[in-house]
Specification:
The structure is a single chain. The chain is mainly α and 474 residues long. The chain has eleven helices and no strands. The longest helix is centred in the first third of the chain and has 92 residues. The N terminus is likely disordered.
């Protein structure tokens, strides 16, 4: 850069020679600035001479500086031209400013009117939105009250079903105990009769009813869960509606003079709204309508479930009543058969006792008759023995001898006949005694069977209250 400046210095000397001479002669040399105040261009070409400088040498040194470092002199024409230019530009700027001010005033009025109109439109839209949200909130509240009532009704139906299920425990226990008690019958009375068959049918029916009630309870629990889910959805939707109404009503009450207003940048509004889920008006209405429809469907299904529970309870109760009456009829029929059989056995026992008494009397008479033959037999044999001692020829077979022989034979025959008859009578008496013993045993068995069926089973079944199976109010 210094070489370039030195090369240009020779050309500058010729151009400013006269000016330098005139300045030196007039002693009006310009005051050279201190090195600290010079520009970098001058500082690079001017040598440093300490705190005091030679003005001539400094001036000569400036000859090597650029031409822009020398102040230009202006002529009067330039001054007039500059003045006129400034006036003309000022008038032009003033006219532009007046035009701009008129346009600004019109813009202010137009924008103010547009702002007021838009604000009024927003207020109207807010009022419409408040009305719409209030309408949906009212529908949701109505449905919420209905579903809460339905939950209460279904809980009552569930309680009735639980009572019906619990009411089957006593009949099951009674029927089981009846079967166990009837196992205490003995001998021939331990039969698989119609009573046992109906008791088994009753147990099977009770088991089916218990399974049915358990199924109804499971279905009821599912309906309750569905109702509670719909209730929670409605409550959440209602809370959202209430919050929306609170915010929209607050926005509706705001005006330009409200306190607490603050300027919010559009970027912050966008960022705040982008965090939440956006939905259209149709989405909003469809969401609430879907909640309402789901709740209505859940209520209808709950009503059907309650009707099904009541139908199952009533039908089960009727079937159990019929089965209980049938079991009771079978018990009464069996008791009648047992009583008739016992009566017949008692009659037979009485006849047997009478026959035994008669046989005993007859046997006594036969024995007396047999004993009564001993005297005649002794007399006849004694006579025959005495006459056998007749001497010699006197011992003849006369008519007496023949008669005695016939008498002894007849008495012997009579004794044999009586003995045979006594043996037969004793055998008959023995059979009658055996029969009497069997009759007595059978009568005892019948008495025990009657006591089991009448005293244990029927008395136990009287504790059943089939009206209690159907819950109160049904």
């Amino acid at each position: 850069y210094q070489r370039r400046v030195r090369g240009e210095s020779s050309g500058i000397n010729a151009e400013y020679g006269e000016l330098l001479i005139s300045l030196v002669m007039s002693s009006e040399l310009p005051r050279i600035r201190e090195p600290a105040q010079m520009t970098s261009a001058y500082a690079s070409v001017l040598p440093s001479y300490g705190s005091k400088r030679d003005p001539g040498k400094a001036l000569l040194q400036t000859l090597g500086a650029p031409s822009t470092a020398v102040r230009d002199r202006k002529i009067p024409q330039d001054w007039n031209a500059a003045y006129n230019t400034h006036v003309r530009l000022s008038d032009k700027d003033k006219n532009k400013s007046e035009t701009q001010r008129d346009a600004s005033n019109r813009l202010i009025r137009d924008l103010d009117q547009r702002t007021k109109t838009k604000q009024a439109e927003i207020n109207r839209q807010l009022q419409d939105r408040i009305t719409t949200v209030s309408y949906w909130k009212q529908r949701l509240n109505t449905e919420h009250a209905s579903i809460c009532q339905e939950i209460t009704n279904l809980n009552m139906s569930k309680q009735k079903t639980q009572q019906a299920l619990a009411a089957t425990e006593l009949p099951t226990e009674v029927a089981t105990n009846c079967l166990k008690n009837r196992e205490g019958r003995e001998a021939i009375d331990l039969v698989q009769d119609l009573v046992d068959d109906e008791l088994i049918n009753e147990l099977n029916l009770l088991s089916e009813i218990q399974r049915l009630m358990q199924t109804r309870l499971l279905d009821t629990d599912n309906r309750l869960r569905n109702l509670n889910d719909c209730k929670n959805s409605l409550e959440l939707d209602i809370r959202d509606k209430e919050e929306c109404l609170r915010l929209d009503e607050h926005c509706y009450k705001l005006n330009n003079g409200s306190s607490g207003l603050q300027q919010v940048s559009q970027a912050s509004i966008y960022e705040g709204n982008s965090q939440g889920r956006k939905s259209t008006v149709d989405d909003h209405e469809n969401f609430s309508q879907k909640n309402l429809e789901q709740s209505e469907v859940a209520r209808v299904m709950s009503v059907l479930q309650r009707e099904l529970n009541d139908f199952s309870i009533n039908k089960s109760n009727d079937e159990l009543q019929k089965q209980s009456e049938l079991v009771g009829a079978m018990f009464r029929q069996r008791l009648k058969e047992l009583t008739d059989a016992k009566t017949g056995l008692d009659s037979q026992l009485e006849k047997t006792n009478q026959e035994i008494s008669s046989v005993e009397d007859s046997l006594h008479q036969l024995r007396e008759a047999l004993r009564s033959k001993d005297g005649p037999m002794k007399v006849a044999t004694t006579r025959f023995a005495v006459r056998s001692k007749r001497p010699n020829v006197e011992q003849t077979r006369d008519f007496v001898h023949g008669g005695l022989m016939n008498e002894i034979n007849e008495i012997s025959s009579s004794q044999e006949a009586l003995k045979n008859q006594i043996a037969c009578a004793e055998e008959t008496l023995h059979r009658l005694m055996k029969n009497k013993e069997r009759l007595q045993q059978d009568i005892a068995i019948k008495k025990k069977s009657i006591q089991i069926d009448e005293q244990q089973c029927l008395r136990l079944r009287k504790t059943l209250n089939w009206r209690g199976f159907r819950p109160a109010g049904m």
